[in-house]
């Protein structure tokens, strides 16, 4: 129609523009226009947020009942159990905010993937036992219609912890507690150890504890992907962004002893998009801090730790990232197929990887040797000087080994007592923690997720009582020390 | 079920009740694409309707529940008749066969009935169990592990026996001499690694395990692990192709981060 009209105008000799031209060039992108129009029409239909003026599909929703900061195994586990335990289907809206959708620095993907019940605290043992039964029945818990079953690649080879003379008594009492809780652990003398595993050098070993069932290692990526898939099918929303601000309100109240206390409640979470200044304020009722190694930053955003030191307001969340190295090596004459994950008296550990005489392992550095957690660069000299000598002493076959590769990952290290922080904060009443597990978060994730979901939905721990893991212990100074940290 | 009519009914709500659209679609569905179409129609429905998804989920959960029911632990029977009686009853109920020491094999017939006379001699230890094609899983092994003097166990083609179950077999280490895992779809080399507790094993059958990634290498490693045992089932040369130009199936590469 326009084209038919124009020749008249052009016939007058005026300087008119041809149809379809604009200053600077223009090409009619018909397919793009059609798909944009389709998108706008879809957004008007009920059930979708109306983005007529701008496209907001990449932004999180404006309201969400629960916002989980951190999309690793702990965050997804909490999301899963919230959806599993909610009173009716679709009762609560859960949003998981994850800064890095490639999980390049997340502790879950970089983990060695072990699970064991040989702890000294009964709560840790119960968490690991529940997690083992969760992993065993993972295709019932995380079954999604039409999706293939998950293959966790679980190696049920167990953990072998070695103790020197001075630690032998502690190990015996720990094994007693473990057996009471239901873990199947057996104690072995150096002779029995030599009989069973002839490749071990038992010099300096007074006692060993060997987990017979429900212990071993598995593929953490598979668990993460399985949880993600199931949680998406249950209706949890995902967002890729960074939490930059909490908007909260405070209320001054009096305790029963007439002391003034300021209670804070978070109302909004500002989620900033990747590589842009755009942010979305998400109104929320509950915030769950499952940010792993960066949990302290999220806690600081909520104002936890701002106050005179020594008071409850001034108690910071003592979780910091600590870098740990894992090395992969090849040793053709090394221990055979039956090798458990061996944790030496010196703290060095190793396990088999695959069928081809490859092993992986490492060692936790002492406080003085702690590497700088600013990046995930690997220090190969650490293996030469601090890990290899201990391995070669314990397993003589490891004197001739060849390192194939190595990687580094973060522990969300709890500097207070190396155990997790679970439950609400006493002053910021709607922030719940699920972090600080210092290297055993992956193996306790299902149990902790369930505990936090129970706390959020029912107000108390129902199945496993994790009250010793509450935040208040940092203020009260009650350390619950876990001896068997690898 | 006539596919075009079925698809008419099922597709109607998605097209917002526009009858014109239904007729158009009905004509387009060809009968020979029936099977594939049926599967994708079901998937399509599951993706669009919560009800269909919930129904399919319920059916899936019911299947799993049936297996759990079969694998209950018979603690009351154990109190009444002792561990051997309870274990034997469990196996016979699942469809397997049991042999008490110095007696004949007891098998259920094709209707699932078996002779009840074994209750009379249930102090006699059970010597051999043939649980082929049964639905035994991790919980059901509770009943099996009560048979302390079991010498021969056959778990051929059991679809629910996986690596976790194998890690549970160590209480039978003193007596078990023969074990067969042929054809179990969920057993992999990781489960075979925990058979090293069974030091009295003399014959192990690991043929036809589809989940084992490298059968030849696994056989060698298992033979090394159990020196007194005859490991049957895989030709060790399997995977080694003749000819210099083809590489032998080699070691698993280190797992990247």
UniProtKB/TrEMBL annotation, chain A:
Taxonomy, superkingdom: Eukaryota
Cofactor: FAD
Membrane topology category: Single-pass membrane protein
SUPFAM superfamilies assigned to the protein according to its UniProt record, in alphabetical order: FAD/NAD(P)-binding domain (SSF51905)
Function per UniProt: Required for the assembly of the mitochondrial membrane respiratory chain NADH dehydrogenase (Complex I). Involved in mid-late stages of complex I assembly.
Subunit comment: Associates with components of the mitochondrial respiratory chain complex I.
Protein name: FAD-dependent oxidoreductase domain-containing protein 1
Species per Swiss-Prot/TrEMBL record: Pan troglodytes (Chimpanzee)
Gene responsible for this protein: FOXRED1
UniProtKB/TrEMBL annotation, chain B:
Signal peptide residue numbers: none
SUPFAM superfamilies recorded: RNI-like (SSF52047)
InterPro entries per UniProt: LRR_dom_sf
Role summary: Required for the assembly of the mitochondrial NADH:ubiquinone oxidoreductase complex (complex I). Involved in the assembly of the distal region of complex I.
Family that this chain belongs to: Belongs to the ATP synthase subunit s family.
Oligomeric form and interacting partners: Interacts with incompletely assembled mitochondrial NADH:ubiquinone oxidoreductase complex (complex I).
Protein name (Swiss-Prot/TrEMBL): Distal membrane-arm assembly complex protein 2
């Amino acid at each position: 129609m326009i084209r038919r009209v124009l020749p008249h105008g052009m016939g007058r000799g005026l300087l008119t523009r041809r149809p379809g031209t604009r200053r600077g060039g223009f090409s009619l992108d018909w397919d793009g226009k059609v798909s944009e129009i389709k998108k706008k029409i879809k957004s008007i239909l009920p059930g979708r947020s109306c983005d007529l003026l701008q496209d907001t599909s990449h932004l999180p929703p404006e309201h969400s009942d629960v916002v989980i900061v951190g999309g690793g195994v702990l965050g997804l586990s909490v999301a899963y159990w919230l959806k599993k335990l909610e009173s009716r289907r679709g009762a609560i809206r859960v949003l998981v905010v994850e800064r890095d959708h490639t999980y390049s620095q997340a502790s879950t993907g970089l983990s060695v993937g072990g699970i064991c019940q040989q702890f000294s605290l009964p709560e840790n043992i119960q968490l690991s036992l529940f997690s083992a039964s969760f992993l065993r029945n993972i295709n019932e818990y995380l079954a999604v219609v039409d999706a293939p079953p998950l293959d966790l690649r679980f190696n049920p080879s167990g953990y072998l912890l070695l103790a020197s003379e001075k630690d032998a008594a502690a190990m015996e009492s720990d094994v007693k507690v473990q057996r009471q809780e239901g873990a199947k652990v057996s104690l072995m003398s150096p002779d029995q150890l030599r009989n069973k595993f002839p490749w071990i050098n038992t010099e300096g070993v007074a006692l060993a504890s060997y987990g017979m069932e429900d212990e071993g290692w598995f593929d953490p990526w598979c668990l993460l992907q399985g949880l993600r898939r199931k949680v998406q099918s249950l209706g949890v929303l995902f967002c890729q962004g960074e939490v930059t601000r909490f908007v909260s309100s405070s209320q001054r109240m009096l305790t029963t002893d007439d002391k003034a206390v300021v209670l804070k409640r978070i109302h909004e979470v500002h989620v900033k998009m990747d590589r842009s200044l755009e942010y979305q304020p998400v109104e929320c009722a509950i915030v769950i801090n499952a940010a792993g190694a960066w949990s302290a930053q999220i806690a600081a955003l909520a104002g936890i730790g701002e106050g005179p030191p020594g008071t409850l307001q001034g108690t910071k969340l003592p979780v910091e990232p600590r870098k740990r190295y894992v090395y992969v090596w090849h040793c053709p004459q090394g221990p055979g197929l039956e090798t458990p994950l061996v944790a030496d008296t010196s703290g060095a550990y190793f396990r088999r990887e695959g069928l081809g005489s490859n092993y992986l392992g490492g060692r936790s550095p002492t406080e003085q040797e702690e590497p700088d957690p600013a990046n995930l660069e690997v220090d190969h000299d650490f293996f030469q000087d601090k890990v290899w000598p201990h391995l070669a002493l314990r397993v003589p076959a490891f004197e001739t080994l060849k390192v194939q590769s190595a990687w580094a990952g973060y522990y969300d290290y709890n500097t207070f007592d190396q155990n997790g922080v679970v439950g609400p904060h006493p002053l910021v009443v709607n922030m719940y923690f699920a972090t600080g597990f210092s290297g055993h978060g992956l193996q306790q994730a299902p149990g902790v997720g369930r505990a936090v979901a129970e706390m959020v939905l029912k107000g108390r721990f129902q199945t496993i009582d994790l009250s010793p893991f509450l935040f208040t212990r940092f203020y009260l100074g009650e350390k619950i020390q876990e001896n068997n940290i690898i | 079920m006539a596919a075009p009519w079925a698809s008419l009914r099922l597709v109607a709500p998605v097209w917002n009740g526009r009858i014109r659209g239904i007729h158009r679609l009905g004509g387009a569905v060809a009968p020979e694409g029936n099977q594939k179409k049926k599967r994708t129609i079901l998937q399509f429905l599951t993706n669009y309707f919560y009800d269909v998804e919930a129904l399919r989920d319920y059916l899936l959960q019911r299947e799993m529940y049936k297996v759990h029911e079969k694998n209950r632990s018979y603690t009351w029977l154990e109190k009444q008749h002792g561990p051997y009686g309870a274990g034997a009853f469990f196996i016979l109920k699942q469809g397997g066969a049991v042999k008490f020491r110095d007696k004949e094999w007891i098998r259920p017939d094709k209707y699932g009935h078996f002779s009840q006379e074994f209750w009379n001699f249930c102090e006699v230890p059970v010597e051999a169990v043939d649980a082929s094609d049964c639905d035994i899983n991790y919980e059901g092994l509770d009943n099996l592990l009560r048979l302390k003097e079991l010498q021969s166990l056959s778990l051929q083609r059991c679809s629910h026996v996986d690596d976790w179950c194998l890690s549970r077999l160590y209480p039978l280490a003193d007596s078990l001499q023969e074990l067969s895992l042929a054809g179990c779809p969920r057993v992999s080399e990781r489960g075979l690694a925990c058979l090293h507790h069974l030091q009295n094993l003399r014959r192990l059958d690991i043929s036809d395990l589809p989940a084992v990634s490298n059968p030849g290498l696994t056989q060698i490693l298992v033979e090394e692990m159990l020196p007194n045992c005859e490991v049957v089932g895989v030709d060790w040369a399997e995977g080694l192709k003749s000819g210099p130009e083809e590489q032998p199936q080699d070691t698993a590469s280190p797992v990247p981060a």
